[in-house]
Amino acid sequence: MSDSTAVEGAVLPALRLDRLPEVTRALADRADAHDREASFPADGIALVHDAGLLTATVAARHGGPGAGLTDTVRILRALGAGDPAVALISAMTLFVHAAEARTPRWPTAAYAEFLHTAADRPALVNHLRVEPELGSPVRGGLPATTARRAGDHWLLTGRKIYSTGAVGLDRMLVWARTDEDPVRVGSFLVRKDSPGLTVEPTWDHVGLRASRSDDVLFDGVRVPVDDVVALAAPGPATPDAVGGAWGALGLTALYLGVAEAARDWLVGFLHERVPTGLGAPLATLPRFQSAVGEIETALTGATVLVDALAADIDAGDPDAPGRAGAAKLLGTRAAIGAVEQALQLTGNHGLTRANPLQRHHRDVLCSRIHTPQDDSLLTAAGRAALDRHPLAAKDTP
Amino acid sequence: MSDSTAVEGAVLPALRLDRLPEVTRALADRADAHDREASFPADGIALVHDAGLLTATVAARHGGPGAGLTDTVRILRALGAGDPAVALISAMTLFVHAAEARTPRWPTAAYAEFLHTAADRPALVNHLRVEPELGSPVRGGLPATTARRAGDHWLLTGRKIYSTGAVGLDRMLVWARTDEDPVRVGSFLVRKDSPGLTVEPTWDHVGLRASRSDDVLFDGVRVPVDDVVALAAPGPATPDAVGGAWGALGLTALYLGVAEAARDWLVGFLHERVPTGLGAPLATLPRFQSAVGEIETALTGATVLVDALAADIDAGDPDAPGRAGAAKLLGTRAAIGAVEQALQLTGNHGLTRANPLQRHHRDVLCSRIHTPQDDSLLTAAGRAALDRHPLAAKDTP
Amino acid sequence: MSDSTAVEGAVLPALRLDRLPEVTRALADRADAHDREASFPADGIALVHDAGLLTATVAARHGGPGAGLTDTVRILRALGAGDPAVALISAMTLFVHAAEARTPRWPTAAYAEFLHTAADRPALVNHLRVEPELGSPVRGGLPATTARRAGDHWLLTGRKIYSTGAVGLDRMLVWARTDEDPVRVGSFLVRKDSPGLTVEPTWDHVGLRASRSDDVLFDGVRVPVDDVVALAAPGPATPDAVGGAWGALGLTALYLGVAEAARDWLVGFLHERVPTGLGAPLATLPRFQSAVGEIETALTGATVLVDALAADIDAGDPDAPGRAGAAKLLGTRAAIGAVEQALQLTGNHGLTRANPLQRHHRDVLCSRIHTPQDDSLLTAAGRAALDRHPLAAKDTP
Amino acid sequence: MSDSTAVEGAVLPALRLDRLPEVTRALADRADAHDREASFPADGIALVHDAGLLTATVAARHGGPGAGLTDTVRILRALGAGDPAVALISAMTLFVHAAEARTPRWPTAAYAEFLHTAADRPALVNHLRVEPELGSPVRGGLPATTARRAGDHWLLTGRKIYSTGAVGLDRMLVWARTDEDPVRVGSFLVRKDSPGLTVEPTWDHVGLRASRSDDVLFDGVRVPVDDVVALAAPGPATPDAVGGAWGALGLTALYLGVAEAARDWLVGFLHERVPTGLGAPLATLPRFQSAVGEIETALTGATVLVDALAADIDAGDPDAPGRAGAAKLLGTRAAIGAVEQALQLTGNHGLTRANPLQRHHRDVLCSRIHTPQDDSLLTAAGRAALDRHPLAAKDTP
């Protein structure tokens, strides 16, 4: 079939980037309801799946479209403009497929099986890393979640927090330590509905409410002994600069989509609102034109920046991943700033829940909480700049 | 000859982008003296010429290197880091050659003659547009400078202000009106040392002092009747979006170069400065690392943005010129902000004239004064965003 | 009795400023529940009444404590730190009493009767001014709400929006026009439970949810013919500079209270949060100390500013009211900025609804929507500065 | 005489606050020349002396006007608006007199003699504290400048930097250590023209050029053995909170004066500038009105803040000195921000040395360099806020 992609006897949905605008609209129609109820957006995920967007990054060698980061940021910006909760849940799956496309690390059978599922229905996967005691895992340390060897299985016990899309995940890549001596760490592949697996509905955030980033409890969950990704001695994580850049640029694009939705609502409002005393739409006032110009300029700059780095990364530019942190910091600031300015311009209209702007605002505030966070990015960027200086060597004794 | 480019019997200096670092250093060595004396940097211009940078944008069909905007922003960033006055004077010449490469408008003989000069020595050219009474010409209106027909010559009379590099220009493209009925406007080509031409040393700015952007008086200056570029009926200027983008991106790159020089000085200072109480360089303090990170992040983002749009424009992307305004606004803000932060971090050390930072600061403040200015950019960006909305049509009666 | 104040046979609750801390705490305990349910905080209003805070500004000549603006900003800051919805509802009543204390305008009997009610139980009053068609009334124009004369009564018909505390008001001062020729405008005194009066629960804001600033419908509501305040020919409102300053400073203080609550939560969080890798509270890190310092500095400055102007106004300084707009603009920016910074510092912890910071954030964003809004304040301040110049006269033809 | 103040046989000039406007104007007339030449403004100091402003803070018990901080900030704001170099030099003398008025620490004869000089002519005095090796003295450490005992004199040797007004000082209070065992530190009183005293004209700053904050070298300068102020064992400086507040508020007022001068120039420019296309002054455009409103609002807020704290300090409020740091940080930011905005609004006109705005800008940037600097203020404010929390005790082991 010309319209689809074959994978080992299964057929992934064809990638239909041309359907992005309609997907955005359909997601937007349901976003308010999901936000109010903080309900998992299964309907939205289905739409994303149907348009082939959820499997866009499956490698060509696996029968997928092999979309790069350029397409991924385009997809995530569009989904983010519709419903950023759907976009975030989708992003996690896209990132897992993209990582596997770059460097195969899953057990072969496990990935093939997962792709078969993905051909049938929306198949979500996500890394579960964060634990209550730990702070963010990227800053080092052993996980408390522990895999105990029992014959041909691991028994996994622990708690993960901030587990985006937990109730809808087909697979969880649970970062855990073994109880071996010497200890090893890796990502244990847990299937949905495994006995001992419980999702606790702890997520009650101001924003991205439908992302259901709940706690997940593992109480002796069985994982086949080979279903572990990258099991190895603990140590300073080999920095995956390209993977980090996918995350940074992909999520920045997602929140730029939120800001675009806010801008679009604002533009419509300014056209529709005709104060009695003015007799013309607010859109005709220089003050509002200039303010919209600030928003537009910020979003244009951030979008060009993200797109340019995504293209550079797809082209294999070795310097590009090192600039992704700057794009995240500047891009999320631009997105937040744009929505905040829209709020300032619209007074009560922007703050009432009858209009979506306040939701965009609550959502866009979540852009800062994804790692790496601003303070880490700034310190890293500063050290890199300082280290390029000839005198840098002598600072460190 | 492998090292040069032939042009109709003359030889333009070969374009040596590899020499940019040394040119930057050589310009930087002399920048303080030129700033203090507000003296025309003829020595720096000669260096730029020798490295083929001043003729980089001469079209291949004219025997030049035919450099595009990608190379031009690279050149101007490097020159700006050395001496932005040299860079600004050079930029004007580069823009004129680039415009002629895109769309030939000079009289053929006049351009050929100018290229012969450019093969022999640094040959500078600039548009002289601004007049005391007019405000900025891009906002419309007829010039007061008038060309009166006298046989096979025009006699040109008027005053131009902000004429960058005036004392060093080989050619001036003087925007003027004719005394005909109906009136025409165009750029009259004036040669250096023409009788009736006087440069008044009125330029006494806080920054870019060596750019010598003086007043130029024309008192019946003779211009051969054919030496006029684009003589035509006045009217709304055909917007030259690509030319505008060259100016916006080129000058933004120039000031990003200034900011890079400020960052480099700051980084050196932080490595060299070892407070007694600390016993280690300031560079080891998280507070300074984070602050340098802010600067580095801003400059990285702005540089990627400018470079990406320059590449898009070279590739003929029709949407790219429309984004150049955003890059100018964001890029000059980034440049100014970076230098201001460096000033804040260094106290008395940054403000003393014994160190170059205060000069970088005075120079970078000039970035905002080049047209289009921020308020115009914002209003234009806002209107464009508002006009994309379906309701836009009904706003205008 | 030493503990109370006599009023024409009734006894207003004694003003107990010493009880402010406990009232703040009690309100804070219930604020989350009222926010989630968007429920009218009758319990909180009762506490405010019991401590004599709701009648603090009743004039001494009416048997009240006669508190000035100095005490009022202190009260509103404390109430705002507890529950800004309670504070806002209370503020409206305090402002009405204070205005009556400065310049009696109520019918004598009506005010006496209202004070008797206020002696018995929490008696709330508010001006209802804003209408859907009108924009904000301070910018001029006739109200659409109309009073038709019917014998010894007016029959009031219309709709008011943003009617803070509507369901709990004992009295509404409804700004309306008469159907007379020539027309008059004034504030018609409507009692709770009047036939024809309906409160529509339209208020669904992101912040100040418990303020219940609903729509109120009047369908032929009877108002005794004398129960009208300041009935007069329409015209440019006599600017009540002192009354405007009470509103501006009082509401700014209220939101500074919200910001104080946010700061206090942040400080506690930084003391309690001990990252594993750090082994000490976040409060020990210079980065957080400096960030708290930004917040503290902003709040200190804004609080001194508001308090100083309040004292000046109580002292009758004629220049002070003209500075109240600056205090509102700077004070609300400081309050919003402080809470936003706290959000940035605390990531997921600040954004989860398990913690109050996100509520403080949603609440403090409402500070900007009270008139006069920032754009009006800035234009007014700018014009005043420009008009002081000798050349100002010639600008206006 | 009714118009003067008697002091032990001498007569200090009468304090004439009513002459502040004319002094401001006279200083402003000469400020540009002093800035260009970086020349000591002896003429301006004479004007300040003649109006009694230089001795305003001499205590009543010494026959002076005994002006408090309220008058001092008023004086310094007015002088700063005229010529901040004159203001800064004067401020140092005012602070010394004020400190002596609060707590007598000078040798009696030495102070009496100094007052006699001050009756005859402008008598300047300043603390010389900073040394090249030391960083700022407020952060602790022993000075390198050393007093060696030789009979009934000390012989003082060392170098001080940033010695404001050095060439014009009648007295220098030179912070130095003795060569005794155990060592003592104190302020050694050096007279002008002492043998061994050399002023090196090292001051070449971008701003406050006429303040001549040069290096001073002491090569065995003789100081009578009793002419030492506060000679004592070294140790953590007893924090002089009130003295610190005088410095913080006084200097902030000075720079607010600079910003007022910038605003006044801007206002005049906007009235005078009539673009051809507009046909009316820029002052009539809402964009400029709003921008002036930003500046005006910032300056109003900062001025009320400084004035309020000055009054509180004069009234002995024990909490007020602790808030002076906030006023310095917010006030200098307001001053710098106001001038920067004026620069942004005026393009080339603001940046040319033909207009004073660029000088105001260079001057106002110096506001940040006076101790305590922003980072110290923020950390101190943050720690104070954190330390108020009940959990604070447990942070420190």
Automatic annotation (TrEMBL), chains A, B, C, D:
CDD domains named among the record's database cross-references: ACAD
SUPFAM superfamilies noted in UniProt: Acyl-CoA dehydrogenase C-terminal domain-like, Acyl-CoA dehydrogenase NM domain-like
Acyl-CoA dehydrogenase/oxidase N-terminal domain location: 25-92
Acyl-CoA oxidase/dehydrogenase middle domain sequence ranges: 131-221
Protein name, as recorded: Acyl-CoA dehydrogenase family protein
Any one Gene Ontology molecular-function term assigned to this protein's record: oxidoreductase activity, acting on the CH-CH group of donors
The entry's keywords: Flavoprotein, Oxidoreductase
Highest taxon above the source species: Bacteria
Keyword hit for Oxidoreductase: yes
Domain Acyl-CoA dehydrogenase C-terminal: 250-371
Keyword Flavoprotein: yes
EC number: 1.-.-.-
